[in-house]
Amino acid sequence: MAVTAAGQRGGTLMGSREEILARVRDALGTASGTPVEVPRDYRRRLGAEEAASRADVIALFTERLADQRATVRHVGADELGTTIAAALWGREAKQIVVPADLPYGWLAELDGVRALADSQVTDVATLRAVDASVTGCAVAVARTGTIVLDGGRAQGRRALSLVPDHHLCVVHADQIVGTVPEAVARLDPYRPLTWITGPSVTTAVELARVPGGHGPRGLEVIVVED
Amino acid sequence: MAVTAAGQRGGTLMGSREEILARVRDALGTASGTPVEVPRDYRRRLGAEEAASRADVIALFTERLADQRATVRHVGADELGTTIAAALWGREAKQIVVPADLPYGWLAELDGVRALADSQVTDVATLRAVDASVTGCAVAVARTGTIVLDGGRAQGRRALSLVPDHHLCVVHADQIVGTVPEAVARLDPYRPLTWITGPSVTTAVELARVPGGHGPRGLEVIVVED
Protein backbone atom coordinates (compact mmCIF):
# COMPACT_ATOMS: atom_id res chain seq x y z
CA MET A 1 0.00 0.00 0.00
CA ALA A 2 1.34 3.45 -0.98
CA VAL A 3 1.72 5.88 1.89
CA THR A 4 1.89 9.56 0.94
CA ALA A 5 3.85 12.17 2.83
CA ALA A 6 0.56 13.69 3.99
CA GLY A 7 -0.60 10.28 5.17
CA GLN A 8 2.60 9.84 7.12
CA ARG A 9 2.19 13.20 8.75
CA GLY A 10 -1.44 12.35 9.61
CA GLY A 11 -0.26 9.07 11.08
CA THR A 12 2.32 10.79 13.28
CA LEU A 13 -0.26 13.24 14.53
CA MET A 14 -2.63 10.37 15.28
CA GLY A 15 0.11 8.63 17.23
CA SER A 16 0.78 11.82 19.27
CA ARG A 17 -2.92 12.25 19.97
CA GLU A 18 -3.22 8.70 21.29
CA GLU A 19 -0.10 9.06 23.39
CA ILE A 20 -1.39 12.32 24.92
CA LEU A 21 -4.81 10.85 25.66
CA ALA A 22 -3.19 7.77 27.23
CA ARG A 23 -1.13 10.01 29.49
CA VAL A 24 -4.24 11.96 30.47
CA ARG A 25 -6.07 8.69 31.28
CA ASP A 26 -3.09 7.47 33.30
CA ALA A 27 -2.97 10.73 35.24
CA LEU A 28 -6.71 10.61 35.92
CA GLY A 29 -6.49 6.96 37.00
CA THR A 30 -9.65 5.55 38.52
CA ALA A 31 -10.18 8.63 40.64
CA SER A 32 -11.79 10.63 37.79
CA GLY A 33 -13.98 13.40 39.22
CA THR A 34 -12.44 13.42 42.69
CA PRO A 35 -10.16 16.29 43.72
CA VAL A 36 -6.51 15.76 42.97
CA GLU A 37 -3.63 17.01 45.08
CA VAL A 38 -1.80 19.51 42.85
CA PRO A 39 1.85 19.88 43.77
CA ARG A 40 2.45 23.50 44.83
CA ASP A 41 6.04 23.16 45.88
CA TYR A 42 7.34 25.51 43.17
CA ARG A 43 8.88 28.76 44.30
CA ARG A 44 6.33 31.50 44.61
CA ARG A 45 8.69 34.34 45.28
CA LEU A 46 12.15 35.35 44.19
CA GLY A 47 14.89 34.01 46.42
CA ALA A 48 17.22 36.42 48.20
CA GLU A 49 20.02 35.39 45.80
CA GLU A 50 17.94 36.61 42.86
CA ALA A 51 16.59 39.83 44.35
CA ALA A 52 17.25 41.04 47.87
CA SER A 53 15.51 44.43 47.45
CA ARG A 54 12.86 46.20 45.35
CA ALA A 55 15.66 47.72 43.27
CA ASP A 56 16.92 44.20 42.48
CA VAL A 57 13.44 43.15 41.32
CA ILE A 58 13.27 46.10 38.92
CA ALA A 59 16.84 45.46 37.74
CA LEU A 60 16.00 41.80 37.05
CA PHE A 61 12.90 42.83 35.05
CA THR A 62 15.04 45.23 32.99
CA GLU A 63 17.70 42.60 32.36
CA ARG A 64 15.18 39.98 31.21
CA LEU A 65 13.48 42.47 28.89
CA ALA A 66 16.84 43.38 27.37
CA ASP A 67 17.58 39.65 26.83
CA GLN A 68 14.43 39.54 24.67
CA ARG A 69 15.57 42.46 22.49
CA ALA A 70 13.00 44.80 24.01
CA THR A 71 14.04 48.41 24.67
CA VAL A 72 13.82 49.52 28.30
CA ARG A 73 14.02 53.00 29.77
CA HIS A 74 13.68 54.17 33.37
CA VAL A 75 12.16 57.57 34.11
CA GLY A 76 10.67 59.58 36.94
CA ALA A 77 6.93 60.29 36.81
CA ASP A 78 7.53 63.91 35.74
CA GLU A 79 9.60 62.83 32.73
CA LEU A 80 7.06 60.37 31.32
CA GLY A 81 5.45 62.76 28.81
CA THR A 82 8.76 63.87 27.31
CA THR A 83 10.14 60.32 27.29
CA ILE A 84 7.15 58.97 25.35
CA ALA A 85 7.39 61.86 22.90
CA ALA A 86 11.15 61.34 22.46
CA ALA A 87 10.69 57.59 21.93
CA LEU A 88 8.12 58.22 19.18
CA TRP A 89 10.11 61.03 17.57
CA GLY A 90 13.11 58.69 17.55
CA ARG A 91 11.11 56.20 15.49
CA GLU A 92 9.81 59.01 13.26
CA ALA A 93 6.29 57.96 14.20
CA LYS A 94 3.62 60.12 12.59
CA GLN A 95 0.48 58.40 13.83
CA ILE A 96 -0.14 56.22 16.86
CA VAL A 97 -3.15 54.58 18.45
CA VAL A 98 -3.93 54.64 22.18
CA PRO A 99 -6.75 53.46 24.46
CA ALA A 100 -9.34 56.23 24.91
CA ASP A 101 -8.68 56.24 28.66
CA LEU A 102 -4.90 56.68 28.43
CA PRO A 103 -3.95 59.47 30.89
CA TYR A 104 -3.70 62.68 28.86
CA GLY A 105 -0.39 63.62 30.52
CA TRP A 106 1.35 60.67 28.87
CA LEU A 107 0.80 62.32 25.47
CA ALA A 108 0.92 65.97 26.48
CA GLU A 109 4.33 66.57 24.85
CA LEU A 110 3.49 64.77 21.62
CA ASP A 111 4.13 67.56 19.12
CA GLY A 112 3.84 66.41 15.52
CA VAL A 113 2.56 62.91 16.26
CA ARG A 114 -1.14 62.27 15.74
CA ALA A 115 -2.66 60.08 18.47
CA LEU A 116 -5.83 58.25 17.54
CA ALA A 117 -8.07 57.28 20.46
CA ASP A 118 -9.13 53.68 19.85
CA SER A 119 -12.78 52.71 19.75
CA GLN A 120 -14.64 49.58 18.74
CA VAL A 121 -15.11 51.06 15.28
CA THR A 122 -11.38 51.46 14.56
CA ASP A 123 -10.79 48.89 11.85
CA VAL A 124 -7.84 46.51 11.61
CA ALA A 125 -6.48 48.29 8.53
CA THR A 126 -6.11 51.47 10.59
CA LEU A 127 -4.43 49.59 13.44
CA ARG A 128 -2.02 48.05 10.92
CA ALA A 129 -1.24 51.43 9.39
CA VAL A 130 -0.25 53.28 12.56
CA ASP A 131 3.40 53.49 13.56
CA ALA A 132 2.91 52.35 17.14
CA SER A 133 0.50 51.84 20.01
CA VAL A 134 1.02 53.20 23.51
CA THR A 135 -0.58 51.41 26.49
CA GLY A 136 -0.14 50.80 30.19
CA CYS A 137 -0.21 47.33 31.72
CA ALA A 138 -1.80 45.48 34.65
CA VAL A 139 1.27 43.76 36.09
CA ALA A 140 4.80 42.79 35.05
CA VAL A 141 6.96 39.81 36.03
CA ALA A 142 10.65 40.36 36.77
CA ARG A 143 11.86 36.76 36.53
CA THR A 144 10.46 36.23 33.03
CA GLY A 145 10.50 39.84 31.76
CA THR A 146 6.80 39.53 31.03
CA ILE A 147 4.18 42.27 30.79
CA VAL A 148 0.52 41.37 31.37
CA LEU A 149 -2.37 43.42 30.00
CA ASP A 150 -5.90 42.78 31.27
CA GLY A 151 -7.93 45.31 29.27
CA GLY A 152 -8.20 47.56 32.33
CA ARG A 153 -7.26 51.20 32.69
CA ALA A 154 -4.94 52.63 30.01
CA GLN A 155 -4.76 49.27 28.25
CA GLY A 156 -7.72 49.13 25.88
CA ARG A 157 -8.69 46.10 23.89
CA ARG A 158 -6.29 43.33 22.99
CA ALA A 159 -5.91 44.39 19.34
CA LEU A 160 -3.92 47.46 20.42
CA SER A 161 -1.02 45.39 21.68
CA LEU A 162 -1.23 42.83 18.86
CA VAL A 163 -1.89 44.57 15.56
CA PRO A 164 0.33 47.68 15.40
CA ASP A 165 3.91 46.82 14.53
CA HIS A 166 5.43 48.60 17.54
CA HIS A 167 4.17 48.54 21.12
CA LEU A 168 5.29 51.12 23.65
CA CYS A 169 4.25 49.99 27.10
CA VAL A 170 4.40 52.04 30.30
CA VAL A 171 5.07 49.99 33.45
CA HIS A 172 4.89 51.65 36.87
CA ALA A 173 7.52 50.28 39.22
CA ASP A 174 4.87 49.16 41.70
CA GLN A 175 3.31 46.97 38.99
CA ILE A 176 6.45 44.79 38.81
CA VAL A 177 6.31 41.58 40.85
CA GLY A 178 9.00 38.93 41.15
CA THR A 179 7.39 35.76 39.82
CA VAL A 180 4.53 34.40 37.73
CA PRO A 181 2.62 33.10 40.81
CA GLU A 182 2.78 36.60 42.30
CA ALA A 183 1.43 38.04 39.03
CA VAL A 184 -1.40 35.49 38.86
CA ALA A 185 -2.37 36.38 42.43
CA ARG A 186 -2.81 40.03 41.35
CA LEU A 187 -4.85 39.24 38.24
CA ASP A 188 -8.53 38.52 37.70
CA PRO A 189 -8.76 35.30 35.64
CA TYR A 190 -12.09 36.44 34.17
CA ARG A 191 -10.49 39.40 32.40
CA PRO A 192 -8.99 39.08 28.88
CA LEU A 193 -5.33 38.58 29.79
CA THR A 194 -2.50 39.13 27.30
CA TRP A 195 0.92 37.94 28.44
CA ILE A 196 3.73 39.60 26.47
CA THR A 197 7.29 38.34 26.77
CA GLY A 198 9.39 40.34 24.34
CA PRO A 199 8.64 41.29 20.74
CA SER A 200 6.79 38.74 18.64
CA VAL A 201 9.00 36.11 17.00
CA THR A 202 7.98 32.88 15.34
CA THR A 203 10.07 29.91 14.25
CA ALA A 204 7.04 27.95 13.04
CA VAL A 205 8.22 27.78 9.42
CA GLU A 206 11.35 25.64 9.01
CA LEU A 207 12.70 26.91 12.33
CA ALA A 208 13.72 30.21 10.71
CA ARG A 209 13.48 33.09 13.15
CA VAL A 210 10.83 35.47 11.74
CA PRO A 211 9.93 38.56 13.76
CA GLY A 212 6.37 39.84 14.00
CA GLY A 213 4.53 36.63 13.22
CA HIS A 214 1.91 37.00 15.95
CA GLY A 215 2.30 40.53 17.21
CA PRO A 216 4.46 43.65 17.13
CA ARG A 217 8.05 43.35 15.95
CA GLY A 218 9.05 46.02 18.41
CA LEU A 219 8.48 46.19 22.16
CA GLU A 220 9.59 49.26 24.06
CA VAL A 221 9.07 49.50 27.80
CA ILE A 222 9.20 52.63 29.94
CA VAL A 223 9.52 51.88 33.65
CA VAL A 224 8.20 54.77 35.74
CA GLU A 225 9.80 54.97 39.15
CA ASP A 226 7.33 57.01 41.21
CA MET B 1 -13.83 110.41 73.22
CA ALA B 2 -13.27 110.44 69.44
CA VAL B 3 -14.20 107.23 67.71
CA THR B 4 -12.65 106.67 64.27
CA ALA B 5 -14.42 104.85 61.46
CA ALA B 6 -11.91 102.04 61.90
CA GLY B 7 -12.66 101.93 65.61
CA GLN B 8 -16.37 101.71 64.90
CA ARG B 9 -15.83 98.84 62.50
CA GLY B 10 -13.65 97.10 65.09
CA GLY B 11 -16.33 97.65 67.68
CA THR B 12 -19.04 96.22 65.47
CA LEU B 13 -16.91 93.17 64.71
CA MET B 14 -16.26 92.70 68.40
CA GLY B 15 -20.00 92.91 69.06
CA SER B 16 -20.69 90.28 66.37
CA ARG B 17 -18.00 88.04 67.76
CA GLU B 18 -19.46 88.20 71.26
CA GLU B 19 -22.96 87.58 69.97
CA ILE B 20 -21.81 84.53 67.96
CA LEU B 21 -19.89 83.10 70.91
CA ALA B 22 -22.89 83.67 73.18
CA ARG B 23 -25.10 81.75 70.76
CA VAL B 24 -22.56 78.91 70.60
CA ARG B 25 -22.48 78.76 74.43
CA ASP B 26 -26.29 78.77 74.55
CA ALA B 27 -26.45 75.95 72.04
CA LEU B 28 -23.86 73.92 73.96
CA GLY B 29 -25.67 74.56 77.25
CA THR B 30 -24.33 72.59 80.19
CA ALA B 31 -24.12 69.38 78.19
CA SER B 32 -20.75 70.34 76.59
CA GLY B 33 -18.85 67.23 75.50
CA THR B 34 -21.82 64.83 75.62
CA PRO B 35 -23.31 63.54 72.34
CA VAL B 36 -26.22 65.55 70.98
CA GLU B 37 -29.17 64.13 69.12
CA VAL B 38 -28.96 65.61 65.60
CA PRO B 39 -32.32 65.80 63.85
CA ARG B 40 -32.18 63.64 60.72
CA ASP B 41 -35.76 64.00 59.60
CA TYR B 42 -34.85 65.86 56.38
CA ARG B 43 -35.61 64.18 53.08
CA ARG B 44 -32.75 62.02 51.92
CA ARG B 45 -34.08 61.18 48.47
CA LEU B 46 -36.10 62.93 45.81
CA GLY B 47 -39.84 62.41 46.13
CA ALA B 48 -41.77 60.77 43.31
CA GLU B 49 -43.32 64.16 42.49
CA GLU B 50 -39.83 65.57 41.83
CA ALA B 51 -38.34 62.66 39.90
CA ALA B 52 -40.09 59.39 39.22
CA SER B 53 -37.37 57.95 36.97
CA ARG B 54 -33.62 58.22 36.23
CA ALA B 55 -34.47 60.42 33.24
CA ASP B 56 -36.31 62.81 35.60
CA VAL B 57 -33.26 63.03 37.88
CA ILE B 58 -31.05 63.96 34.92
CA ALA B 59 -33.66 66.44 33.65
CA LEU B 60 -33.86 68.09 37.09
CA PHE B 61 -30.07 68.41 37.22
CA THR B 62 -30.08 70.04 33.78
CA GLU B 63 -32.87 72.45 34.74
CA ARG B 64 -31.12 73.57 37.94
CA LEU B 65 -27.83 74.08 36.12
CA ALA B 66 -29.60 76.22 33.51
CA ASP B 67 -31.19 78.29 36.32
CA GLN B 68 -27.64 79.13 37.44
CA ARG B 69 -26.59 80.35 33.98
CA ALA B 70 -24.41 77.30 33.37
CA THR B 71 -24.38 75.77 29.90
CA VAL B 72 -25.49 72.14 29.72
CA ARG B 73 -25.17 69.67 26.88
CA HIS B 74 -26.16 65.99 26.69
CA VAL B 75 -24.11 63.61 24.56
CA GLY B 76 -23.51 59.92 24.01
CA ALA B 77 -20.13 58.52 25.08
CA ASP B 78 -18.92 58.31 21.46
CA GLU B 79 -19.60 62.02 20.89
CA LEU B 80 -17.68 63.28 23.92
CA GLY B 81 -14.41 64.04 22.10
CA THR B 82 -16.08 66.06 19.35
CA THR B 83 -18.39 67.85 21.81
CA ILE B 84 -15.48 69.01 23.98
CA ALA B 85 -13.60 70.17 20.89
CA ALA B 86 -16.67 72.01 19.55
CA ALA B 87 -17.30 73.68 22.92
CA LEU B 88 -13.71 74.97 23.03
CA TRP B 89 -13.67 76.02 19.38
CA GLY B 90 -16.91 77.89 20.03
CA ARG B 91 -15.14 79.91 22.72
CA GLU B 92 -12.11 80.39 20.45
CA ALA B 93 -10.00 78.76 23.16
CA LYS B 94 -6.33 78.48 22.20
CA GLN B 95 -4.89 76.97 25.36
CA ILE B 96 -6.50 74.93 28.11
CA VAL B 97 -5.30 73.12 31.19
CA VAL B 98 -6.34 69.61 32.20
CA PRO B 99 -5.46 67.12 34.95
CA ALA B 100 -2.61 64.85 33.79
CA ASP B 101 -4.87 61.80 34.17
CA LEU B 102 -7.73 63.11 32.04
CA PRO B 103 -8.71 60.28 29.65
CA TYR B 104 -6.92 60.96 26.36
CA GLY B 105 -10.08 60.28 24.34
CA TRP B 106 -11.75 63.39 25.79
CA LEU B 107 -9.20 65.56 23.98
CA ALA B 108 -8.53 63.38 20.93
CA GLU B 109 -10.40 65.73 18.54
CA LEU B 110 -8.83 68.91 19.90
CA ASP B 111 -7.28 70.28 16.70
CA GLY B 112 -5.78 73.73 17.17
CA VAL B 113 -6.23 73.94 20.94
CA ARG B 114 -3.16 73.37 23.10
CA ALA B 115 -3.88 71.28 26.19
CA LEU B 116 -1.45 71.69 29.06
CA ALA B 117 -1.27 68.74 31.48
CA ASP B 118 -1.31 70.24 34.97
CA SER B 119 1.42 69.45 37.45
CA GLN B 120 2.39 70.80 40.85
CA VAL B 121 4.85 73.14 39.12
CA THR B 122 2.23 74.86 36.94
CA ASP B 123 2.12 78.35 38.42
CA VAL B 124 -0.99 80.42 39.08
CA ALA B 125 -0.09 82.92 36.33
CA THR B 126 -0.27 80.08 33.79
CA LEU B 127 -3.59 78.85 35.19
CA ARG B 128 -4.93 82.42 34.96
CA ALA B 129 -3.74 82.79 31.38
CA VAL B 130 -5.41 79.69 29.91
CA ASP B 131 -8.81 79.99 28.25
CA ALA B 132 -10.42 77.12 30.14
CA SER B 133 -9.92 74.00 32.20
CA VAL B 134 -11.50 70.63 31.44
CA THR B 135 -12.14 68.17 34.28
CA GLY B 136 -14.42 65.34 35.30
CA CYS B 137 -16.21 65.22 38.66
CA ALA B 138 -16.86 62.82 41.52
CA VAL B 139 -20.62 63.22 41.91
CA ALA B 140 -23.37 65.67 40.94
CA VAL B 141 -26.59 66.64 42.74
CA ALA B 142 -29.80 67.04 40.73
CA ARG B 143 -31.89 68.98 43.27
CA THR B 144 -29.29 71.73 43.68
CA GLY B 145 -27.56 71.53 40.30
CA THR B 146 -24.26 71.03 42.11
CA ILE B 147 -21.08 69.36 40.89
CA VAL B 148 -18.64 67.95 43.43
CA LEU B 149 -14.95 67.41 42.71
CA ASP B 150 -12.83 65.37 45.10
CA GLY B 151 -9.41 65.48 43.46
CA GLY B 152 -9.83 61.92 42.20
CA ARG B 153 -9.57 60.59 38.67
CA ALA B 154 -9.78 63.19 35.87
CA GLN B 155 -10.22 66.02 38.39
CA GLY B 156 -6.75 67.11 39.41
CA ARG B 157 -6.06 69.61 42.12
CA ARG B 158 -8.55 72.22 43.27
CA ALA B 159 -6.82 75.14 41.49
CA LEU B 160 -7.92 73.75 38.11
CA SER B 161 -11.59 74.38 38.83
CA LEU B 162 -10.97 77.69 40.63
CA VAL B 163 -8.33 79.72 38.79
CA PRO B 164 -9.04 79.46 35.04
CA ASP B 165 -11.90 81.73 34.00
CA HIS B 166 -13.94 78.99 32.33
CA HIS B 167 -14.55 75.47 33.61
CA LEU B 168 -15.79 72.72 31.33
CA CYS B 169 -16.88 69.77 33.45
CA VAL B 170 -17.79 66.30 32.19
CA VAL B 171 -20.47 64.54 34.25
CA HIS B 172 -21.33 60.92 33.55
CA ALA B 173 -25.05 60.27 33.97
CA ASP B 174 -24.38 57.61 36.62
CA GLN B 175 -22.58 60.24 38.72
CA ILE B 176 -25.79 62.26 39.17
CA VAL B 177 -27.69 61.60 42.40
CA GLY B 178 -30.92 63.22 43.55
CA THR B 179 -30.03 64.98 46.79
CA VAL B 180 -27.15 66.32 48.87
CA PRO B 181 -27.43 63.48 51.46
CA GLU B 182 -27.09 60.97 48.61
CA ALA B 183 -24.00 62.83 47.36
CA VAL B 184 -22.45 62.95 50.83
CA ALA B 185 -22.98 59.19 51.16
CA ARG B 186 -20.92 58.65 47.99
CA LEU B 187 -18.07 60.96 49.01
CA ASP B 188 -15.03 60.44 51.21
CA PRO B 189 -14.94 63.32 53.74
CA TYR B 190 -11.15 63.05 53.99
CA ARG B 191 -10.67 64.06 50.34
CA PRO B 192 -10.39 67.73 49.28
CA LEU B 193 -14.00 68.36 48.24
CA THR B 194 -15.01 71.27 46.01
CA TRP B 195 -18.76 71.88 45.69
CA ILE B 196 -19.63 73.93 42.61
CA THR B 197 -23.11 75.34 42.13
CA GLY B 198 -23.07 77.43 38.98
CA PRO B 199 -20.48 79.94 37.82
CA SER B 200 -18.83 82.06 40.51
CA VAL B 201 -20.78 85.17 41.50
CA THR B 202 -20.23 87.45 44.46
CA THR B 203 -22.43 90.22 45.89
CA ALA B 204 -20.02 90.93 48.75
CA VAL B 205 -19.37 94.55 47.71
CA GLU B 206 -22.48 96.74 48.09
CA LEU B 207 -24.70 93.85 46.98
CA ALA B 208 -23.71 94.37 43.35
CA ARG B 209 -23.69 91.12 41.41
CA VAL B 210 -20.07 90.59 40.24
CA PRO B 211 -19.24 87.41 38.30
CA GLY B 212 -15.98 85.55 38.84
CA GLY B 213 -15.17 86.77 42.32
CA HIS B 214 -14.16 83.41 43.73
CA GLY B 215 -13.88 81.14 40.71
CA PRO B 216 -14.58 80.81 37.00
CA ARG B 217 -17.11 83.14 35.41
CA GLY B 218 -18.16 80.37 33.05
CA LEU B 219 -19.37 76.86 33.90
CA GLU B 220 -20.14 74.48 31.08
CA VAL B 221 -21.35 70.97 31.79
CA ILE B 222 -21.39 68.02 29.43
CA VAL B 223 -23.61 65.19 30.63
CA VAL B 224 -22.53 61.87 29.11
CA GLU B 225 -25.33 59.37 28.85
CA ASP B 226 -23.54 56.03 28.55
CATH homologous superfamily classification of chain A: NagB/RpiA/CoA transferase-like
User: Which class do the helix and strand fractions of chain A yield?
Assistant: alpha/beta
- From the alpha-carbon coordinates, what is the Rg of chain A to the nearest angstrom? 21 Å
- Principal-axes shape call of chain A: globular
How many angstroms does the end-to-end distance of chain A come to? 71 Å
The most extensive interface, with participating residues per chain, is:
A-B, 17 and 17 residues
Number of helices of chain A: 6
Biggest beta-sheet profile of chain A: 6 strands, parallel
Mean pLDDT of chain A: 89
What is the CATH C level class of chain A, in words? Alpha Beta
CATH architect. name of chain A: 3-Layer(aba) Sandwich
Poorly predicted ranges of chain A (pLDDT <50, ≥5 residues)? 1-11
Strand content of chain A: 15-25%
**Largest beta sheet: strand ordering of chain A:** 1-12-7-4-2-3
According to CATH, the fold-level topology of chain A is Rossmann fold
Order of helices and strands of chain A: HHEHEEHEEEHEEHEEEE
Helicity range of the residues of chain A? 25-40%
As for the number of domains of chain A, it is 1
Q: What is the number of beta strands of chain A? A: 12
InterPro entries (chains A, B): FTHF_cligase-like_sf (IPR024185), LUD_dom (IPR003741), NagB/RpiA_transferase-like (IPR037171)
Pfam families (chains A, B): LUD_dom
Protein name (chains A, B): LUD domain-containing protein
Q: What are the salient characteristics of this protein?
A:
12 strands; homodimer; 6 helices; Rossmann fold; globular; 226 residues; 29% helix; four-stranded mixed sheet; alpha/beta
